[in-house]
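Budget justification aside, the reviewers requested a transparent look at the raw inputs and outputs of the sequence design task funded under Objective 1. We therefore reproduce one unedited record. The lines immediately below are the structure tokens for a 237-residue chain.
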């Protein structure tokens, strides 16, 4: 028995689009001209990625935003660490904008939208835990719309040996109760074959699977999310 039915809309970054199979017909996010140039100049690469989803996020007035990032403002943090090591003055802007909530905060401010948000960081399980957070909110608020934004920068060379180099990519997903996808959360291992599983909650695999498979899993060490398409209609934007 599946727990809840959802409708899902997606918007992908240009980097994401370039890594997908050419048959995928998905529109890329873009920077709206309405965003002040002064805000862009002060924004990190991560924040600019998130700002490309402005029109997608606020077109339908979501009630809640879940921002998921494995490493957050990694470039800014590394720059601050270099300044400390070299005993030079810290940049006030870099210091103020080095927290995990920088990107969603700027997103709501420059778009003049007072939407509550939370940030999720859970290592390789970050994407899955963001979905869990969204499902939990919708369970308690079934009339709401939740927007999940996942984004990470390119890993700096200095940290690649520790974190790996997963590239720079981002996507935004809107979830609403009632739709074509059924999502089941379970603790025990399911019966799907290894070929159908997405073992580490990988975001790229998620995008490909949700476009091509009627049923697939996102797995962590403690739980599984089983996605099942009730019909073949999924909206992408």
């Amino acid at each position: 028995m599946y727990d809840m039915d959802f409708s899902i809309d997606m918007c992908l970054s240009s980097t994401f689009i370039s890594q997908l199979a050419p048959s995928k017909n998905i529109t890329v996010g873009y920077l709206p001209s309405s965003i002040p140039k002064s805000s862009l100049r002060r924004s990190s690469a991560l924040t600019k990625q998130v700002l490309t989803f402005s029109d997608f996020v606020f077109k339908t007035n979501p009630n809640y935003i879940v921002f998921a990032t494995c490493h957050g403002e990694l470039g800014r943090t590394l720059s601050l660490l270099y300044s400390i090591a070299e005993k030079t003055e810290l940049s006030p802007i870099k210091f103020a904008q080095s927290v995990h909530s920088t990107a969603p905060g700027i997103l709501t401010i420059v778009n003049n939208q007072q939407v509550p948000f939370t940030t999720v960081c859970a290592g390789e399980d970050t994407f899955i835990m963001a979905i869990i957070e969204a499902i939990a909110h919708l369970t308690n608020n079934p009339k709401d719309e939740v927007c999940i934004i996942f984004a990470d920068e390119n890993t700096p060379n200095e940290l690649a040996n520790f974190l790996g180099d997963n590239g720079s990519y981002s996507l935004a997903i809107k979830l609403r109760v009632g739709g074509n996808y059924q999502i089941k959360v379970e603790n025990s291992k399911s019966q799907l074959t290894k070929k159908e599983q997405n073992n580490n909650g990988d975001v790229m695999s998620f995008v490909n699977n949700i476009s091509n498979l009627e049923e697939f899993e996102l797995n962590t060490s403690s739980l599984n999310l089983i996605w099942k398409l009730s019909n073949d209609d999924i909206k992408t934007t």
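Residues 4-176 form a domain with the Peroxisomal Thiolase; Chain A, domain 1 fold (CATH 3.40.47.10). The mean pLDDT is 81. Computational costs for records of this kind are itemized in the attached budget.
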